[in-house]
Write a structure and sequence with these properties.
This protein is α+β, with helices and mostly antiparallel strands. The chain is built from five helices and five strands, in the order H-E-E-E-H-E-E-H-H-H. Strand 1 and strand 2 form a beta hairpin.
């Protein structure tokens, strides 16, 4: 009877350890998801904005100016669609990026403002990548949505770090508890438990 109780404690502790492993895996995957979002939503456009500071300023002319509408079940989303032409190194190119924000917005006011400012035939300046002239934008400044993109994935990463910290703190407390010491002692002698149990079963036959 005593052997079965000790064996049950060992199995219970093993199940607890398995749950801990699953918890660690879940937290790590949660952190990876946050890091990927941070790269896609914040790091990539930020790097483009910083690199565009070194791009060359070239005269250009607006050839198309409209609002792109993206319908959905939750409502319509809007984005200013501006196309422009420019000459660089005696070659003509066309650009279609107002800035480095590729996301749509539920608020059409900002798109209306951009379209009103950049009307067809309007002549202004654009910023051209000298290494790849097909890459050009009309506005290389930071956009407001960029900071919100930083907040969400960063919160996921911080929550993951906090989760790992709390998990390992609880593990450290569990290892210092008397029950863990008893489990370790029983685990080291577990083969004898199973051997004695086998002998008992054979005697009962």
């Amino acid at each position: 009877m005593q052997i079965k109780m000790k064996k049950s404690k060992i199995y219970k502790k093993l199940r607890e350890n398995s749950l801990v492993v699953l918890g660690v895996v879940f937290i790590v995957l949660f952190a990876i998801f946050g890091i990927l979002l941070w790269i896609l939503l914040f790091a990539r456009p930020m790097m483009k904005i910083l690199s565009a500071k070194k791009w060359e300023v070239v005269p250009c002319e607006i050839i198309k100016s409209e609002i792109d509408n993206l319908p959905s079940e939750s409502g319509n989303s809007y984005k200013a669609k501006i196309q422009f032409k420019f000459q660089f190194n005696q070659k003509w190119y066309e650009g279609s990026s107002y800035n480095f924000n590729t996301a749509f917005s539920n608020d059409s006011d900002e798109s209306d403002k951009i379209v009103s400012q950049y009307k067809v035939g309007f002549k202004t300046s654009c910023f051209v990548d000298p290494q790849s002239p097909s890459q050009a934008v009309l506005n290389r400044d930071f956009f407001d949505d960029l900071y919100w993109r930083l907040l969400f994935p960063s919160s996921l990463i911080l929550i993951s770090i906090l989760g790992i910290f709390l998990l390992f703190r609880d593990l450290k407390k569990a290892k210092a508890s008397p029950s863990h010491k008893l489990f370790k002692k029983n685990a080291n002698s577990s083969p004898s438990f199973f051997k004695n149990e086998k002998i008992i079963k054979e005697k009962n036959r």
